[in-house]
Amino acid sequence: MLSMQNISMVYRTDLVETHALREFSLEVDEGDFISVTGPSGSGKTTFLNIAGLLERFTGGRYELDGRDVSALSDAESSAVRNQKIGFIFQSFNLIPDLNLFDNVDVPLRYRGFKAAERKRRIENVLEMVGLASRMKHLPSQLSGGQQQRVAIARALAGEPRFLLADEPTGNLDSHMAMSVMELIAEINRNGTTIIMVTHDPSLAEMANRNVHILDGRVSDNGADTQMAKQMAKHVAKQWVDQMAAPTATAATG
Ligand code: ADP
Ligand code: MG
Fold this sequence. Notes:
Layout: E1 2-12, E2 17-28, E3 33-37, H1 44-51, E4 59-64, E5 67-68, H2 74-84, E6 85-88, H3 100-110, H4 115-128, H5 144-157, E7 162-166, H6 174-189, E8 193-197, H7 201-204, E9 209-214, E10 217-220, H8 223-244, H9 248-252
Helix pairs in contact: 3-4, 3-5, 4-5, 5-6
The protein binds adenosine-5'-diphosphate and magnesium ion.
Adenosine-5'-diphosphate is lined by residues 11, 18, 20, 38, 40-46.
């Protein structure tokens, strides 16, 4: 679904050049749930912004659904983004004087859906995040965890195939973080490909694969660990099947 080869990203100011990403290569399959970890300043947000076509990169090749997206115009980028990609940020970015319904409605209006279709989608996603009964509440009337659920609903209302989350639980206490994580895992089980940046190793564990970034490079793409996990599951299942199978003597009586 996503393929990056030797992506580089250099931020230039008058005085300094910062190499935020260098020789950054990564493959992500449809349906993957990937956590991204790495020290502060290692390039996690830069990677996510490039993956989501929010930022252009300096060099390398990026294909999304088999299409080279390096040379898209701004209008083409935003069309791809609107159709395929949802974002969740650490700060929930809700509009304070709009109620929940209207907050979720903002990107749908922007995409030009008709009122009835918008209403159907908004009610559907607010139901999914457990806030259907609060549609007329303002963000300030909700807890942090609930506000992040609204932000997730807003991201899902566009029915993205690809969800990008930058420290989505960074502003939440551990209990709320866990419930938001469970929601994200459920979204993945329903078929959405997810890349989630997190500081928290125990949350990173909940993904199917962990990618670690150091100094703007992928230092571990998690593929080996993922394969080892799958092998372990397979072996465990064989054991269980063997234990459950009737023995030859028992079967023949
Ligand atoms: P992380 O999300 O892992 O903390 P970032 O991707 O935000 O890291 O940043 C990677 C590097 O790029 C850092 O050194 C950061 O200071 C630099 N950087 C990020 N955004 C900008 C920008 N807009 N202008 C200049 N430097 C930037
Ligand atoms: Mg960051």
